[in-house]
Structure formats: structure tokens, C-alpha cells
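Sample A.
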Amino acid sequence: RGLDLPPDVYAPIGLVLQGVADKAHVYLNGVLIARDWSVCAQRKFYLPEGLLDLHGENVLALVLWRRGEAPSAGEVRLETYGEWRTS
């Protein structure tokens, strides 16, 4: 399913990972856009509009690891940085 944004809206989007993994790789439409090995409980990764189709279909793939701990039922969500109308 697409993002369903109106054609005149610019809304930079981030992927939020909260408490799901120690290590993460983020792929957007087949391109590795982020690698993170931090131990932060919450992280936000910018999804670049050069790869992200704001008005169409996208494929987001995650590779997540937990080191030495049981899997976590954390949260994965998309979140905008703001929303602007274009002309």
C-alpha cells in the first residue's frame, strides 16, 4: 500500500525503532540506507525522498539483531518530521 499523501504535500518521513534490536540494517527499495549498532532504546532513521516514493509504493526491509537477550516486542513505525504544502 502507498503512503497516500496528496500530490501537493511534502512530508519527510523517518522510521522509528523503539526497543526492538541492538543492531539494525534498514533497506529502502533495495538500497541499504542505514546501519546502526547502538544500544539506544529508540532510534529514528530518515527515509530519503530520492529513494522514497512519497506518493506511491515502497519496499522497506529491516534486519534486526538482539545480542545475548531474548527477542523484544518493541515498536516499529513511520513518523513525519513535519508536513508542508507545495504549489
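Sample B.
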Amino acid sequence: VFGKIHFEILNKCYLSSIGYQEDDILFELDIERSRYYDRKKESIMLFGIVFWASALPHYEELIKAVRSA
């Protein structure tokens, strides 16, 4: 539901080379500070879930290979 906002928050907070300030992000996304913090927390959690869901199978295979060597 908030995919675009999640993307924009992650992009502006952590990926952009511009160095957005919090007030700039609030203005550009046109959201209240409390909503921003809620969405930012969700964004980080969702990113972590997606990252680890894609990374864990690789690490599991790596661990098995190391144990069997």
C-alpha cells in the first residue's frame, strides 16, 4: 500500500547522494512527522526482510559447503 513512500524514504535517507534533511523529506513526501517515522520504521523492516530472504539461501549453501569440506 505504501510501496512508493517506502521506496522514497529509503532512497532519500540512505541511497541518495544529495543528503536530504528530514524536513526536506517531509516536505517532498507531504506527510506529517509522525507518519514519516511510522513509514520509515516500516521501510527499514521491509528492506531487512527482503534482503535476508534473498541472502539466507546463499549463506545456507555456503555454510553447508564449508561444513562438508
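B remarks: The mean pLDDT is 93. The first helix runs from residue 3 to 15.
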